[in-house]
């Protein structure tokens, strides 16, 4: 524990790795391993342990990258049960009622998908399960829904809840994939290419699913790749290699395989051009003649086994590293650093949110006393709002219709609203703590946030994000200083670009200004050219002859050599 606390202090990004090691030492390794959901065993437990299981709905809580439909259909096939599925939405309640009424009598199964889109019917379902006198014992109702506050509490209390989250890590992803694959599936195609390419496909599936955790660096849009994509691709590969075997073809048609997987199957979800390019790159990397060579390695620690036994494949999954290198996803260590910092931040935020909010029995100051003092300190530093008349006089004098001044007016309007919200929150919070006014939900959230040194959610609406209230408040003061100085002394020689709420709008205003200064120029044909100078902001005595000087930008994952003027 002491080691973990030390790691948390000096290397926040390694905190969760250290936490996993601590859990393994204090408890057992099984508490940090990922185990694929065995729906057949789960269903058997429900039948044995639950009284009247036909009256107990089974609710799957949906998470990104996880769709239980294939699992339910597979189990029904094994049990030789008919499944009537309906995706809930407007007008689908009629279909759901018909399916339920039929299956209650015949003992069939009903799958209600995406019920968060048809919440009214869930109330009806709850009443049906309670009031119906006779239900065929084999009847089951399966429900899938995203977390939603509108789901009836009674239904949740009477049901079995299952969450089947997408696996975390390459090893966990491969374990889930090979829990789905059977020996019969491996034996379907006699050629060795089938078993190798199936492993490569499962590796690719884990890579594209894991890419979401890196945010916009992994995928520009967080696509919900799930088991259905893997099923469709494996079926295509199976048919393609069977066709090869029938035609006695020697080599795999790689261009066809790559196109079907990257453009059709997975590509059917992709909407961004850069994401499509990345998917095509993955396909070129993984589906080529080299992967069929003996002892092929994707990366150190990620090898392709050569066997015909499903047990050996499943054992080989355990040779994958427990902590993945970001290089297996085509990224560098900086991407992994950002992910792990964000992950640790989320975990500790959740821990803080679940801590008891009441004061302890010690002699120290209570959280209310601490927040009251903080409110007084912040209020003493908070500047007064801009005077509308002063702003109007400056804009009229400088040219209110100039693009750069329109951008200034927009920034001042945003800051005026934020200053008003901050002042009202700090004043009302003190009154609410004293009991003078009622503690509203917004004030209660603000109290919790300030007690944990976080920015109150009310302040973040329409404003910028910062991890702590200290950083956010300093940014507020710096923004006010820049606009106040601009109004009183004229346009800045160099602009603090991160201080703009709409930085893109400011840069567009600069383009418009330059375009208007040249006769015959069209805005669409003017491009922004950036040159890094060796000046510090305080060294700039005159504004740029054309364009603007900006400062305050930073680089993520590299540095700038001021001496050599290069990355």
Description:
With 567 residues, this protein is α/β, with parallel strands linked by helices. The protein is 52% helix and 6% strand. The chain has 22 helices and nine strands. The strands form three sheets. It has a five-stranded parallel sheet with strand order 2-3-4-1-5, with helices on both faces. Strand 8 (494-496), helix 22 and strand 9 form a beta-alpha-beta unit. The longest helix is centred in the C-terminal third of the chain and has 32 residues, at 403-434. The radius of gyration is 30 Å and the shape is globular.
Would you spell out the secondary-structure blueprint of this structure?
Blueprint (H helix, E strand, L loop, with lengths): L1 H9 L4 H12 L12 H11 L8 E4 L7 H11 L3 E5 L5 H14 L2 E5 L5 H13 L8 E6 L7 H6 L1 E4 L6 H11 L2 H4 L5 H19 L16 H21 L6 H12 L7 H14 L10 E3 L2 E2 L6 H8 L15 H21 L13 H15 L6 H11 L4 H32 L6 H11 L5 H4 L8 H21 L4 E3 L6 H14 L32 E3 L16
Helix pairs in contact: 1-2, 8-10, 8-14, 10-11, 10-13, 11-12, 12-13, 16-18, 18-19, 18-21, 18-22
What is the averaged pLDDT score? Answer: 88
Largest sheet: 5 strands, parallel
Helix content: 40-55%
How large a portion of the residues is in β-strands, by DSSP E? 5-15%
SS field, number of helical segments? 22
Q: What are the low-pLDDT stretches, counting only 5+ consecutive residues below 50?
A: none
Structural class: alpha/beta
Distance between the termini: 40 Å
Arrangement of strands in the largest sheet:
2-3-4-1-5
Backbone CA Rg:
30 Å
Number of strand elements: 9
- Mass-distribution shape: globular
